[in-house]
Design a protein that fits this description.
By secondary structure, the protein is an alpha/beta fold. The protein has helices spanning 59-69, 143-148, 163-183, 215-237; strands spanning 5-11, 14-31, 38-49, 77-81, 89-93, 96-102, 127-128, 134-135, 151-157, 160-161, 195-201, 206-207. The protein contains four helices and twelve strands; from the N terminus they run E-E-E-H-E-E-E-E-E-H-E-E-H-E-E-H.
Length: 239
């Protein structure tokens, strides 16, 4: 995966950045992104910055409009964040590249005290105990707040994964992200609005495994960990 094309647009009275990755041939993807999420072949990935008070209820339609304005053809993936996407962090291992845009204004525990209380509900930042465990501090995140605290990850492997391994790869990405956040000092497994996309060739021999101890999964874990750790440290330093 090459470095993204950096673009900008005027929206809501502000100059907002976009990062665009184009692929020479369609890649097989599994993603949780609001636009182009799910399973299938994808030709591009767009990460678009939005204003801090973003509250549109139709992010997929919003991203479709942005893609159309850029003349993007074919199926793609679109993600939103209030973070300046020009500050993308990248991690590389043999045959694997991971790119992350990191915003951590609302880190949360996946099984926090108020998880599942709403569309953006999650436990808040929390604190660590002396034993290294976490005690959640309940705090409901609004959609606008969640947009400001998002970790979006795009990972591309040069080796095809079978369907089960692609699901396993998404798990590996999530585990590596959570490890990086912990090591960076953030009390949370992620944020309420994180998104991930894992892409690989659509043809060729397929790997059966992508867990963190498999050949390709371990590379994926290290690349994602490096990208998220770098982005987390930079985000904290800027504040």
């Amino acid at each position: 995966m090459d470095e993204p094309e950096l673009l900008s647009r005027r929206e809501d009275g502000a100059e907002l950045a976009m990062a665009l990755w184009r692929f020479g041939s369609p890649l097989l993807a599994l993603s949780s992104a609001p636009y182009g999420g799910g399973w299938g072949e994808r030709q591009w990935v767009l990460a678009a910055q939005v204003s801090g008070g973003y509250s549109r209820p139709d992010p997929a339609d919003h991203l479709a409009g942005l893609a159309g304005g850029l003349g993007l053809d074919g199926p793609g993936i679109g993600m939103l964040t209030a973070v300046d996407v020009r500050l993308v962090s990248t991690g590389r291992e043999d045959g694997v590249t991971a790119a992350a845009t990191v915003g951590l204004s609302h880190p949360a525990w996946a099984a926090g005290a108020e998880a599942g209380t709403g569309s953006a509900g999650a436990a808040g930042a929390g604190t660590r105990t002396a034993a290294g465990r976490a005690r959640a501090t309940p705090a409901q995140a609004t959609p606008a707040e969640a947009a400001g605290g998002t970790v979006n990850i795009i990972a591309v492997l040069s080796r095809r994964l079978c369907p089960a391994a692609l699901v396993n790869a998404v798990m590996t990405v999530t585990e590596a992200k959570s490890q990086a956040l912990w090591e960076a000092g953030f009390a949370g497994t992620g944020t309420p609005s994180d998104a991930v996309a894992v892409l690989c060739p659509a043809a060729g021999p397929a790997e059966a495994f992508a867990g963190p101890r498999s050949r390709w999964g371990s590379r994926l874990a290290r690349a994602v960990h490096a990208a998220v750790l770098d982005g987390s440290i930079r985000w904290a330093a800027a504040r």
